[in-house]
Amino acid sequence: xxxxxxxxxxxxxxxxxxxxxxxxxxxxxxxxxxxxxxxxxxxxxxxxxxxxxxxxxxxxxxxxxxxxxxxxxxxxxxxxxxxxxxxxxxxxxxxxxxxxxxxxxxxxxxxxxxxxxxxxxxxxxxxxxxxxxxxxxxxxxxxxxxxxxxxxxxxxxxxxxxxxxxxxxxxxxxxxxxxxxxxxxxxxxxxxxxxxxxxxxxxxxxxxxxxxxxxxxxxxxxxxxxxxxxxxxxxxxxxxxxxxxxxxxxxxxxxxxxxxxxxxxxxxxxxxxxxxxxxxxxxxxxxxxxxxxxxxxxxxxxxxxxxxxxxxxxxxxxxxxxx
Amino acid sequence: xxxxxxxxxxxxxxxxxxxxxxxxxxxxxxxxxxxxxxxxxxxxxxxxxxxxxxxxxxxxxxxxxxxxxxxxxxxxxxxxxxxxxxxxxxxxxxxxxxxxxxxxxxxxxxxxxxxxxxxxxxxxxxxxxxxxxxxxxxxxxxxxxxxxxxxxxxxxxxxxxxxxxxxxxxxxxxxxxxxxxxxxxxxxxxxxxxxxxxxxxxxxxxxxxxxxxxxxxxxxxxxxxxxxxxxxxxxxxxxxxxxxxxxxxxxxxxxxxxxxxxxxxxxxxxxxxxxxxxxxxxxxxxxxxxxxxxxxxxxxxxxxxxxxxxxxxxxxxxxxxxxxxxx
Lengths: 323, 327
Ligand SMILES: Cc1ncc(C[n+]2csc(CCOP(=O)(O)OP(=O)(O)O)c2C)c(N)n1
Ligand SMILES: [Mg+2]
Description:
The complex is a heterodimer.
Chain A lengths: L1 E5 H15 L3 E5 L15 H5 L3 E3 L4 H13 L3 E6 L9 H8 L2 H4 L9 E6 L13 H5 L5 E3 L4 H13 L4 E6 L6 E5 L11 E4 L4 E4 L2 H15 L5 E5 L2 E3 L3 H11 L2 E8 L4 H12 L9 E5 L8 H7 L3 H12 L1
Chain B lengths: L11 H28 L14 H6 L8 E5 L3 H7 L3 H8 L23 E5 L5 H14 L6 E6 L6 H12 L4 E7 L2 E2 L2 E2 L12 H5 L3 E5 L3 H16 L5 E6 L17 H9 L2 H11 L5 H24 L15
Parallel strand pairs in B: 1-2, 1-3, 3-4, 4-8, 7-8
Antiparallel strand pairs in B: 5-6
Helix pairs in contact in B: 1-3, 1-10, 1-11, 4-11, 5-6
Bound molecules: thiamine diphosphate (TPP) and magnesium ion (MG).
Thiamine diphosphate (TPP) sits at the interface of chains B and A.
């Protein structure tokens, strides 16, 4: 059975089911307990699960560091960083510990931890608007999930909690209130399996989260003119599903990556390199990367609109490519 | 530098009047901004400073534009008290090209070197290590500059707080660590995140004076700030000054403040420090009613003019996007 649920509520459902199923699961972060999280995704969990859903002081090093320690001793911590920009506040614990310790300790350390983070959405200025997935994807040892639909939010969260690796789940701020069909009961979305959100043959667009939404809107407009775009949602960035990408590009011969982050060495750059390595013969037009130009995210709303790829920009890029 | 710093108005009533002037300017600005946000006339993230006006208003009497203030996203009061011109301040809040940071920083990143409002940061605790660096620069150059860094109760739990206090004490840096304890960090009450009753106790661990003061009491706040700032100015080193206060409008504009006991909020609002100071001035301060009203009229005109300027200003040109990324 599926029913319509908000993205935020789908996340809560996944956490509630896992908290009920596995007593090793603990959920924590700033304002996560009594208040139910500043993004409203965790309402009622503290009431239902008591001290297993708890508040921490404002201290990101502590939050992720504690998750690492708890995971080492067999718990299944699900920590929250209020903004994905704050991976930098917890840099040591994220990049030097969660990412490297299993390896550095010769496999002697288990790190089944999840870090949930609200990302993107802009308008909060350069310290609170970033999509930090490229930094995480660049770092060996951690998994990166980017749920774009309520169903994936539930399914990826469940998979993340059950994973024996450190998993970073980026929850897009603008998606929290979005509604979509979500399966009841246990629902798991496998890592490393991209999903074709719309089929077409004119060009392959790779996009996730809010950029996926915008790309699908552009595809709808283009379809009115008979231009059928294929839209691929990678679902997870690590592992990254190269096969699905190559399969799509074999059909379309062109690829546009739409990304809510700076251009240089973004996810789009990696996808471009993968295409060169795995699909060189299939591409008949140059790769196009739509991203934030290489500037910090400004605050003024209309400057944000000028830098973040829009439906118009995606549409125009496709038209140029198929012209 | 302005040698009048440190020389305070001779009579207590004049001190109170100066504090009131700044506090009322803050109170009225906050009220206008909230009204404009409510009506949808403007749009930005706003963290109301209502209830915390007295702290920077009393502190500012000890500072000149040569001195530095560092503040946070909840910074309107600190910015106004430090003398950031209201027109460029409001324009920045609205993301306009005429703003202090050309509209690129917004309310969380106001900077205005000429008035000494050195920087505003949105990262909790992020200002404290910066304050050490700024103070070290002043000390190395033998400049007579004090740095006052503002932060909240919640920020005193983050590593940066402890790292900064430790070294500031070792090097006797000219810094005042001014913790505006408004009893909540976002939605979490102070007592849920620390096991000690007052934040100033933490000073002991680092070897500097730790003082708790009622931040809503103008004279007490004025005295405590004066002691800490004078200590920094004469080379004796930093102070951790905890000013107790309360925010009337929760964490951020538009959020639900159900987590605060209604009675606690009602009590704080009934004891609103700004009108209370006004009453004191007029009733027992011997400052004429007329003089206060005249002052208020000037304040309203100044704030209204600055808001009109900000509203009428243009947004930055798209070419502004690529400017300032590198030197
Ligand atoms: C490093 C960091 N963590 C979390 C946040 C989100 N956040 C913004 S304000 C705030 C509460 C801060 O409380 P406090 O220090 O008491 O200051 P107040 O807002 O009460 O003035 C939090 C958690 C942030 N901006 N930076
Ligand atoms: Mg506080």
